[in-house]
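hi! just following up on the protien thing from before. the input was this:
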Amino acid sequence: MTKTAIEWTEHTWNPVTGCDKVSPGCDNCYAERMAARLQAMGSARYANGFQLTLHEDKVSEPLRWSKPRLVFVNSMSDLFHPDVPDRFIDDVFAVMTQASRHTFQVLTKRPQRAAKLLAGQTVAKNIWLGTSIETDAYTFRANHLRSIDVQVRFLSCEPLLGPLPSLNLDGISWVIVGGESGPCHRPVESHWVRHVRDMSVDAHIAFFFKQWGGHTPKAGGRTLDGREWTEWPASTPAPAESA
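and the predicted 3d structure came back as:
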């Protein structure tokens, strides 16, 4: 477990590291850059760089955390990557379910596989499932997410790379929007952000504006129309710093 500066969570937990690019939002992957740095520093966890790697010894880790935490699962990978065995995913979900004092945020760009593996199951209330939508071509991911029986479904529209006219927020509890950051960041247009914000407000869905982006994550700030939007799904814990 690692304390993180990501505004919409508290900690990260990576039983899997490494991934492959599947859509435009992956082009400037921060996790790939970080993995390269950690490999260069000699980190044993990243001896394989950004190749998919399972860390069996990390799976049971949440059971040892006594204080309740808000945890982003696999910030350095995707739990539903096709090369992660079904058995491993089942083990991760079993631990998250057992560690009910914590809230786990599972974000994937592969909700089709999540829907297939979780079909007919009711996901434990302390587990949130989300998918990434960076352009209108990927709004279909929300349809797969909607098919899963889970209390909190969320969307990460980050990096937001275009308008989302086809976005359907039915069944969604939380929407995160953010511009891209890093040395090759692509710009975000304010009207793209406002459209998603207005849809969320009209539908009474919690809206979280993470950043405008730029060379660094904090370069453009977080203010949208005179305020910071830091909303959370109803009746769920926010990080201690934002509670």
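Residues 120 and 149 are 8 Å apart (CA to CA).
The radius of gyration is 17 Å.
cheers
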